[in-house]
Amino acid sequence: MTNIEERAASLSEAQIAVHWREEEYISPGARFVGQANASDPAVYDRFGEANFPECFREYADLLDWDQYWHTTLDTSNPPFWKWFVGGKLNASYNCIDRHLATKSNKAAFIWAPEPEEDKTEVITYQELYRRVNEMAALLRDFCGLKPGDRVTLHMPMVPELPICMLACARLGVVHSEVFAGFSGTACGGRIADSGSRALITIDSYYRDGKLLDHKVKADEAVAVAHDHGVDIEKVLVWRRRPGEYLSAVPMQEGRDFFVDEVMKDYRRQEVAPVPMPAEAPLFLMYTSGTTGRPKGAQHSTGGYLSYVAGTSKYFLDIHPEDTYWCFADIGWITGHSYIVYGPLALGTTSVLYEGAPAYPDPGRPWRIAERLGVDIFHTAPTTIRMLRKLGPDEPAKHDYHFKLMCTVGEPIEPEVWRWYHEVVGKGEAVIVDTWWMTETGGFMGSTLPAVKPMKPGSCGPATLGVYPVIYDEDGKTVEPGSGRAGNICIRNPWPGIMQTVWGQPERFVQTYYARYCHDTSSKDWRDWPFLCGDGAVQAADGYYRILGRIDDVINVAGHRLGTKELESAVLTVPEVAEAAAVPVVDEVRGRVVEMYVALHPGRQASKEVEDKVKLAIETEIGKVARPKNVWIVPDMPKTRSGKIMRRVIASISNFTDVGDITTLANPDVVESIRRQVYQQKTERGEAPRELTPKELEEIRSFGHTD
Ligand code: PRX
Q1: Is the pLDDT at 148 greater than 50, yes or no?
Q2: Using one digit for the tens of pLDDT, what is the confidence trace for 605-655?
Q3: Which of 79, 137, 196, 677 sits a CA distance of 20 to 30 A from 175?
Q4: Looking at 22-26, 47-51, 111-115, 538-542, which range is the least confident one?
């Protein structure tokens, strides 16, 4: 054992937290503070618990309501909270129409295609209005969609994606965008779960210098949905280059339609935005959970839009005159909240980029920032780590100036934070480290940039009107400054909270409330803490440090992958009897997946089986989930009750000590797996890397089975 291992083995999680070095505060510059949307510390009083829930009027009043609400928060059916009850509004109207009087010629979106020789596209609010109306007319009249119907979108980062989302919103149709990197099979499962009748896709798109055939996934998705008993009536296919069809698979007569052709019948049509009840669902966003069934987080129209508008204004400090670039994918919640709905509700310019961060070289993001005059930049630690590794000196070569930068999606290491601050932000930009998740709709933890100083590695205090608590395993409160870690929960409802898991209300209650609900018959929100699913520690100053997921979820480059989903995919390979997915610490992607498989008796380990396992994951989930290594082992380490000990194989994969294995049913297998994996890793040039105490703790407790 190394020193670090020895130390960590003898420490509890709480002690590890205590041993972290407290980072120094860094304050925002006067120039930033002078122009900030929120610079008066009194805002914390306005959003204090004494003013809850009425404090959230401040966010809702950023929107235009067709009918003002009569009840700010209805808690009569816990934990299905209702916000702004009685109110009616339309999200598309709020993101487009209401800006036309003053901003019709201002850019709503600027789209940078991946091939640098392709033309950057500027879409003004006026043009967005036209295109969204035409698309809404097409969806309503050609597809027959009505308020409340669901539509699945499987679209990459092209302007047609937000155009479709906003067209759905205009009609009150619920959109369900599936990340384009997900496979046709994964998309099909989500179509079936949501009961969508239409699928919107594109023939192809560019990623990392390659033109990817995307329409092929639509055919798979429709077939998979059909197997689940859901039939897609129409597949609408955008063309990456209008007029050309860049997919190898044929269009299916009567089912598949080119949008640009059908659109000819809807030119210049206008569709009145449908006033929707505040509680009407706006969209579904599928996310990973602990079981294989997709989990559709359902987000509301009024509460969600108010929350993302308010948090965009105060925490991202978006003003209409900014050029804001969130370098995430709209296929994830970050893109929905902070590329499309939040920024557009505030009437700013939101930049979209089609491709990979370092294509064709790691100077690309900074060329885009310089050319477009981006002043707010928003991305994830995995992208920051990659750009730091590939082009540490690139930012200095470019003449851009950010006033604010955001990091989101994973914990950021203080070292990486400092590079972001000093090199990317040129020491001028204030940083917000925003902690939240698909389920919360918007930020839960962040410094208020002009009011609270930054502290590298900590997201900061809770966001306005959000009151967290950290509980230990027994439901006792872990006090701030105690140095102990626990499960972070939010004590109160907030407007951006998901409404339910689509079609699985029991799962919603079970997943987020069962653990710490004080009294299931209570109608008082105080009895219903919301379990976020992260471990966290709170310092004496109230700042939170997020430790990562407590459930069976692996965060790969900011993508939440459920171990059950990964393992179910692998079990489709006929040779495989058992599968277990574990995280491996990775310098750039945060975590990567390694897959352990045991074969049915009589089946031989081979490169072919290994490839089949990788292919199964790519087919069922997508390339993002492709495991780094597949280890075919004679048997899995198991408890006496037959549960796979994921923490043991996770330790092996990370070259760390496996800990106590005396309680295993088959302790002997551990050594043989260790030898096999170490030998093959060495052959592949994978060297041991010293883990931090925090990483060690995560690996050693992975899977929670003891
Ligand atoms: O573990 C937390 C991590 O990402 C998880 C949520 O993933 P997802 O639903 O895909 O949403 C990602 C975008 C919000 C969380 O449970 N996470 C998110 N932001 C941070 C973070 N971990 C540490 N610091 C953050 N700022």
Answers
A1: yes
A2: 999 999 999 999 999 999 999 999 999 999 999 988 788 899 999 999 999
A3: 79
A4: 22-26
3-state DSSP assignment of residue 138: helix
Tell how far the Cα of 361 is from the centroid of ligand 1, in angstroms.
27
Centre of ligand 1 from the C-alpha of residue 385, in Å: 16
Proportion of the chain above pLDDT 70, given as a percent: 96
Q: Which residue has the tokens 């966290």?
A: 536
State residue 641 phi and psi, 5-degree precision.
-85, 5
Pocket test for ligand 1, best of 546, 591, 695 (most atoms within 8 A of CB): 546
Strand locations in 539-684 (E): 544-549, 553-556, 559-562, 576-586, 590-599, 629-632
CA of 697 to the centre of ligand 1 (A): 19
Sign of the C-alpha dihedral, residues 455, 543, 285, 705?
Answer: positive
Which residues fall within 8 angstroms of residue 457, CB to CB, at 6 or more apart? 23, 411, 412, 413, 414, 417, 433, 545
DSSP type of residue 22: P
d(CA 648, CA 650): 5
Query: Ligand 1 mean position to 103 CA, how many Å?
Result: 34
- Cα 64 to the chain's mean position, in Å? 28
The first and second tokens of residue 591, run together, are 């975590």
Pull the structure tokens for residue 551: 């459930």
Around Cβ 356, how many Cβ atoms within 10 Å? 16
Say how far apart CA 410 and CA 433 lie, in whole Å: 9
Which pTM does this prediction carry?
0.93
Q: Is 285 helix (H, G, I), strand (E, B) or coil?
A: strand
Ligand 1 centroid to Cα of residue 254, in Å, is 42
Ligand 1 site residues (CB inside 6 A) read 287, 332-334, 408-411, 433-438, 459, 533-534, 546, 548-549, 555, 560
State the SS3 of 178-227.
CCCCECHHHHHHHHHHHCCCEEEEECEEEECCEEEECHHHHHHHHHHHHH
Ligand 1 centre to CA of 334 (Å) is: 10
Residue nearest to atom 6 of ligand 1 (CA): 437
Q: Which residue's CA is the nearest one to ligand 1's atom 10?
A: 560
Q: What's the 248 CA to ligand 1 centre distance in angstroms?
A: 37
Instruction: Note the pLDDT tens digit of each residue in 222-243.
Output: 999 999 999 999 999 999 998 9
425 pLDDT higher than 90: yes
Give the residue whose CA is nearest to atom 25 of ligand 1: 435
Q: At residue 123, what are phi and psi to the nearest 5 degrees?
A: -115, 110
Round to whole Å and give the CA distance between 677 and 559: 26
CA dist 153 → 80, 123, 128, 299, 582 (Å): 27, 21, 18, 16, 30
Q: DSSP characters for 636-663?
A: --BBTT--B-HHHHHHHHTT------TT
Distance 705 CA to ligand 1 centre (A): 24
Q: How far apart are CA 14 and CA 671, in angstroms?
A: 30
What would the two tokens of residue 626 be?
Answer: 């492709």
DSSP E strand stretches across 250-375 = 256-258, 276-277, 281-287, 295-300, 323-326, 349-353
Helix H, strand E, coil C: the string for 450-499 is CCCCECCCCCECECCCCCEEEECCCCCECCCCCCCEEEEEECCCCCCCCC
Q: To test the ligand 1 pocket, which listed residue (288, 532, 555) has its Cβ within 8 A of the most ligand atoms?
A: 555
Locate the ligand 1 atom nearest the alpha carbon of residue 549 and give its number.
1
Distance of CA 293 to the CA centre of its chain: 18
